[in-house]
Amino acid sequence: MLTIFTSPKPFRANNKTIQTNAIQSWSLLHPEGEIILFGNDEGTAEAAAGFKARHIPQVECNDAGTPLISSMFKIAQDTARHPLVGYVNADIILMSDFLPAVQRIPWRKFLLIGRRWDIKVESPLDFSHPDWEKELRSRLLQEGRLHPPTGIDYFVFPRGQYQNIPPFAVGRPGWDNWTIYRTRAMKIPVIDATKAITAVHQNHDYAHHPQGLAGVWQGDEARQNRALIGGYNRIFDVRDATWNLDKTRLSRVSPLRGPCRQGRRLAESLVRVLWRFSGA
Asked: Please, which residues bridge with residue 34 across strands?
């Protein structure tokens, strides 16, 4: 069984709808599942009470008041009721294929990740409707977009696997990439479950940050996260998984390495630089 933990944004405007949709979907995965909500932003305590989740308001934060990944991962691993834990971003809807995929992993140590599907959601989903999942999957086929492999929104692993995590700020770039790098460095299997798990990301704005999108990706906290990574060669993503999980089997894959991997990173860097200067 699994304990899911996260740190929600304030439950305001569309973020309230998005996060309520996400957490409600998690609560339906299994009657014995556990959910932990970290932080004390507006609406977090009420959401925890409404979904019978654990609320842990006291979590270590940086100078800007943003919760730290290191603190959340430590507390979750120390206090979770279940042997497996999963950090999931609070805008991700999970469906009935999630838990069976997790339960198919045979190893004592592993990291399960995957790509997400992006879609616009502007209203509460009716989870009491027996066909809510079928209808959402139909919408994904028509409107959804599979996100590039650089976006990583869920991490499932055994309790105790990660110690001494740097003080990354949640919701800022880089910590997810470092986690994959660190797992590979520990020679622990990294599993890409994109073909087995349909994780639904509800598109949102960045109004929670005073500087919006630019503040999230280019502000002081973003720069601090990047400094903690320890170099561009530690920016790993879903393509650096060593195993692939689909609907029927778990198979070994060979991620790019050496010059091929460096070439891919260089090409992506050039694209990002050109995009920023193009004004797009």
From this structure: 3
CA distances from 145 to 13, 132, 215, 271, 273 (A): 24, 19, 25, 20, 23
Q: What is the pTM of this model?
A: 0.88
Residue type, 249: R
Which residues are within 8 A (CB) of 94 and not within 5 positions of it... i.e. 6 or more apart? 22, 25, 26, 29, 88, 154, 197, 199, 200
> Which helix (H) or strand (E) element contains residue 252?
strand 250-252
How far is the C-alpha of 183 from the C-alpha of 73, rounded, in Å?
14
Domain ranges of the chain: 2-278
* DSSP-based three-state secondary structure for 205: coil
How far is 157 from 93, CA to CA, in rounded Å? 19
Pairing of strands 111-113, 190-192: parallel
pLDDT digits 0-9 by tens, 25-41: 999 999 999 999 999 99
Residues 65-124 pLDDT 10s: 999 999 999 999 999 999 999 999 999 999 999 999 999 999 999 999 999 999 999 899
Q: Quick one: which H or E segment has residue 201?
A: strand 199-202
Amino acid in the structure at residue 84: L
**Domain 2-278, what fold?**
Spore Coat Polysaccharide Biosynthesis Protein SpsA; Chain A (3.90.550)
Residue 4: CB atoms within 10 A of its CB come to 28
CA-CA distance, 182 to 203, in Å (whole number)? 29
HSE (side-chain half, CA atoms, 13 Å) at 149: 17
Q: Which residues contact 66 (CB under 8 A, 6 or more apart)?
A: 169, 170, 171, 172, 221
